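Regression report. Comparing outputs from two consecutive submissions.

Submission 1:
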Amino acid sequence: MGRLNEIKAINSQLWCPFKTVLFPISFIELADSLEKKGYEMSPALPFPRLPGRLTAIGEIARKGKTVVQVDTSAQMLNITDISVKSAVDCFDEIANILAEDHGFNLDELVKFYRFNATYEIPTEKQAYETIAKNLKIPILENLKENWAVELWPLELKFANANLKANSENWLDISVRPSYERNDSYVISTVYRNTDKAKTLKFVETFEENVIKMIELIDR
C-alpha cells in the first residue's frame, strides 16, 4: 500500500446538542467535576465561580490535547482532540463524571451525536491529478468552452443518498489535494446520528474506511 499506511489525524471532534431548552447542568457543577478529574480550567472563565447560570461559548477546560467546549445558548457539548480515540474516551469520561457526581444521564438528553474529523494521507502520486481522473464528467468540456480554460474537479465529495443536508442523520465525506505540496490527500467528514451505537461504530472504523477509500482513488 506504500505511503497510504501513514494516515495522520489533524483534528477530531465529537459533540452533541441537547434536547433541553437550557444547558442541562450548571457551570459550577461541570467545572468542579472536570477539575476533580484533572482538567485545567480555561483562564478566561470568571473566578470565583458565582452561583447561578453562566452563559458561555467556547473552551472551558482541557487535559493534554483534549479540549472541552460548550455553547450554553445552543445547549451543546463539544470535545476536540487530534486522536479519534482520545475524543471518544473524553466524551465517555465526562458522561461518567456527570452520572457519578450529579446523577445526570448524558445520553438520555442528547438530541443527536456528531463526529467531525480531518485526516491527511500522503501519496507518491500527484494528488490533484489523481482526484481529477476519478471524476471525469461531460460538463467539463462545456465549461472549457465557456471559460476558455481547461478545468478539473478539485475535490471529491460524497454524501448520504436520499437525505437532506440538515437531517439529524447525515454523512458527508470530502477528499481534496493538499494545497501546499499536492503530495497528500486531505479527508474531511461530518457524521450525525441519533443512535449512539451507530455513531461509535462509525468512529471506531473511520480510519480503516478512510484508508480503503483512498486505496480506490489512488490506483
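Submission 2:
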Amino acid sequence: MGLFSFYKKPTAAQKKEIEAALSRGRTCAKRLESLDSIDKYFTEWDKYMKEEEILEYYEDQRIKFTVSPRKIHSMVCAEIPRIEKDTIMRSYDRMQRDAAKLSTDSGKKKKAEKFFNELEYYYSRLQPESVQLIQQLKNGCQLLQ
C-alpha cells in the first residue's frame, strides 16, 4: 500500500515531493544519532524540521499517511534528550583526543575553552538536561584547571 493513502489524490509532483521529504527526513533523523559536533547536530535538526514542515503541510491538505508525520515527529522529539547527550559526549571525547595531541598546556586549555564557548552559543536551543551536562563537564574538565 505504501507509506500513505489519500483522502484526496495528490498530483504526481506532490506525491514525488512527499516521498522525497519522507526520505530526506528519515536520513536526517538517522544522522542525528551519530554526529560528534553540536554545529552539525543543529544543521541536521534544522534540515529535519524543514522536511517535517513539508509533510505536515500535506497532512493538513487532507492527505492521510499510514503513520502520521506528527506521530513520527513526536517519537523523534522524545529521543532528543538522549541524542543531544550522546552528541555532547562524543564531541567532548573528540575535543579531549584533539587536545591530547597538543604539546602545551595553554594550547590544551584554549582547545577546551573554544569547545565550551561553542556549546554555550547553543544553550537557548538545547534541552535543560543538556545544558546541565555541559556545565558538569566544564566544571570537571581537567584541561581548564
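Expected: both submissions complete independently.
Actual: both completed, but the second showed a warning that disappeared on reload.
Relevant detail on submission 2: The chain has five helices and no strands.
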